[in-house]
Design goal:
The protein has 17 helices and ten strands. With 430 residues, the protein is mainly alpha-helical. It has a two-stranded antiparallel ribbon. β5 and β6 form a beta hairpin.
Length: 430
Amino acid sequence: MVNPLVNVLLGAGEQYLADEDASDKLKGDIIDGVRKKLYEVEIPLQKAELNKIKKVKQAVTNRYGEKIAEAFDNYGYYEDGNIDNAFARIDKFINSTQDTEKSFRNKLETKMSDQDFKSVFGANSLTNMREQSVEEREARINSIFADRANVRDLLVSPGAPKEGIKGVLFGDRLKPSDTIAARGKLETATEERTPEMVPVSDRQSIFDVKTGQTMEAAGAVVDSIPLFLPAIPKYSTNELNTEIAQQLQVDSVFDAQSQTLLLQPGAQRQDEVNAVKEVAINNLYRFKEADGSGNVASAIRFARNYLQTNVGDFLSGNFTNYTKAPEGAFGPIEGTAIGVKDQLVTAAEEFAANSGDQTIMNADQAIKIVSYLADKAEQFTGNDDLISYYLKSIPQIQLDPSNPDFPDRQIKDLRAAVTFAYNKNNARGR
């Protein structure tokens, strides 16, 4: 007589084999389905999208240069794979500043430090990260599907029994009801892992980037100059000229043909008026109203104070008996003095020591003063009228050489020497 337990075990064995076959077939179907989806759809699509992005980046490189292309790659401007959209986004960004495409590119390539570049645009190329992500995913998928036993283990239902004889026999099997969960486990293991980027909103504003060094002279501190300035808000020329005429007390006349108020400061104050107007316009962004316009009255007050601090106070603090007087009866108002103060000598020596330029470091004291004052003009870059006003405000005085045995080192006209040095530096794109 056959033991009833044997019959139970024989039946269980037959059922085991049947269930095992069904489970294996289900696993195979899931694996084949996911494999086909990955290799025939998702991976090719991912590579195609990456190639579109790379073509956009190359087009941007061809038009704007490598530095701009890298900057806006980090900003994610190429993600839709559309070249026209990328150009539009970049142009809009540049137009949010006071720069032209050429000057913006020059600043990124020659004036913006690597650290500032990373702080503003990010440290990683999104295109490169996506390419690495595709390569990593493909390698991971290949590794998973290369080991049939391993990929089958990924499919086991997490709810399968693990204890007793049923757990021994059926714990690694799949049933039709497990299909969705099992497929999900395999897809999760092979899914794309999107690179993590620092959100643009968390990065430094490009308008916070500074250039130059903080200088102390005559007890006044001059802040480093912003490398980029926001675009100029809209304003009324007539309102601007009216406010300048009132605040600077210069004559004006209304031109009926052009419907424009024209300033008539005369030769004596033309340089000052031009400088105030330029600085006011370039700093209107500081006084932007709710309607998007700039408050010209506030901007002009700012400009007047700026000129006073950075030209008037700076020069009077560094020259003995410094004053402004007209050249001739009706000529422009220019700076005069009888000599230099010790603090100008000290500031020039410090400037030379920190310049990193061996020629300046080894130069005569008079040359160091010229270099220091010319560098001051460099800090006004983007304000040509202000630079002209500053240079004409430097007194026409003589600087003797430190060593009387070298009379050729004498500076006969300080204003002319500083103007020459500035023009020379500017010509070579310093």
